[in-house]
Records
---
Amino acid sequence: MNMSSGAGSDDLASSAVSRWGHAVSRRYRHILDKSTLLVFHRWIAFSAIALIYAVRVYLIQGYYIITYALGIYILQLLIAFLSPQVDPEIQELVDGPALPTRGSDEFRPFVRRLPEFKFWYSITKAFCIAFMLTFFSAFDVPVFWPILLFYWLLLFISTMKRQIMHMIKYRYVPFSMGKQRYTGKKAASAEETNI
């Protein structure tokens, strides 16, 4: 009898922990969902987190391997952010040109491989993880940081050159600045009043 009552209390405790974990997870998702529309505020929060990380690494004068790995991950995210969801090179081989190449072609909006929110979320999470790793001395590997910085800059320049050449070749712009936007009924009603 005592064993069954002990097992029942363990089940209740694990059930309470499970419910608490589920409630925290739901609250976290709710906050993330609400922040989707607050683009400027999200990037301000990210900038604060990145600044805190940079100050910590500067004051400690270490953890350069973590920073280098973070830089490589950021570069990977940036390439995915700047790339179209369907690579025009592969699409062209399979179905013909996917992106409009002439002014008379049908307009298709640019769809990123990595959407802005996921880009922000991934980069923020990466900075938080890197910040937490700076509290463990096992990750403070002594290296000559100028070599890492030089190698990362070389990698960044070559990767971005390849990405820009791809953008020029297939004539796509991953940013919406300067592009025409559909304004909807407000513009139509304004035009009607002027006529």
---
Amino acid sequence: MEDVKQYMQSVGKQARAASRLMAQADTNTKNRALLAIADAILHSSAALIAANSKDVAAAKTNGLDAASVDRLTLTEKTIKGMAEGLQQIAQLADPIGEISDMKFRPSGIQVGKMRVPLGVIGIIYESRPNVTADAAGLCLKSGNACILRGGSEALHSNQAIAACVHAGLKAAGLPETAVQVVNTTDRAAVGELITLTAYVDVIVPRGGKELIERISNEARIPVIKHLHGVCHVYIDDEADIGKAIRIADNAKTHRYGVCNAMETLLVNTNIAAKVLPELCKIYLDKGVELRGDDASRKLVSQMKVATEEDWHTEYLAPILSIRVVADLDAAIAHIDTYGSQHTDSIVTENYTKAMRFLREVDSSSVMVNASTRFADGFEYGLGAEIGISTDKIHARGPVGLEGLTSQKYIVLGNGQIRV
């Protein structure tokens, strides 16, 4: 335990020193590093797959479920995707140093804001080795140093990707310690990382509910997080039925195991008989298990009975809960009671109702006549994302480059003194 503590203290100290150099790096240098990392990943494809095969073999031996093994596995396609992601980050505008809101004050001074890096970002994640490249790239472009702690099941893969990252940083003349991948599988390292208040400025957990709850409860450092995505689509009685069916189908069945998939469908009682039979046939044909309230089950007999727990549940699976509600007020009340402040959407042709939904639903993404699956950094034009935040302070919603920065006030004067 003492060795882990000393190791993490060393990692933190090196990250803090590197963060000062990263904050000074110009855009061209950061972009050179990103492109060099992408090249290193492409040229190391065979080595990455060889390292990953060790992790995959161990995962299968240890009985890791098929979905987790799939997330863990690197292929030529996913390796190419990592490189392309880094190349895309290099094409994004650099937020660092951006000055905004400059205004003259009566004293003659100018007051405005400048965007700056957060400093050192600790990222704790599971399974997906590609997060190592994504997180390194986003932190690098936003002028931060980072400490990456991947899951123990991906140790060889993450270390192999880290070698490519370090090669790219070195080629661009940036400190290799700007990106450090924790090289121990000891869980005590996580406990140390989330309490390194002297060296780490923010923690970003990416993974299952259990991981994020642990980090949120134990961290002594600010956390950018979301616990779960209980996302809703509300079909209003003034919805276009064809539009509503397309949106509700896509929101649930486009992909099941993602945080922006719809988990509960709310339907206005005045339109339920027109929408639910046709829509539920689509779900049933696709193998989606339906769980409904009494009013829903009267319209679609194949539904199971929805329990109180269902309204709170993020299934991440082909399961959907359905409730018929009296009106917009009832829909908003349901979302307020059971939602997770992630993403919620209304389907309606009534402008006033749409605006009410946007104002009154307290989620990080609120949509009108669009699938919840659009709650994504790429779809929002942010490029890659580090995750989605349901917090209200600092970053909210998909967290891209700007979410990994802060702002400071700047003042320009010409000899003014306060009297």
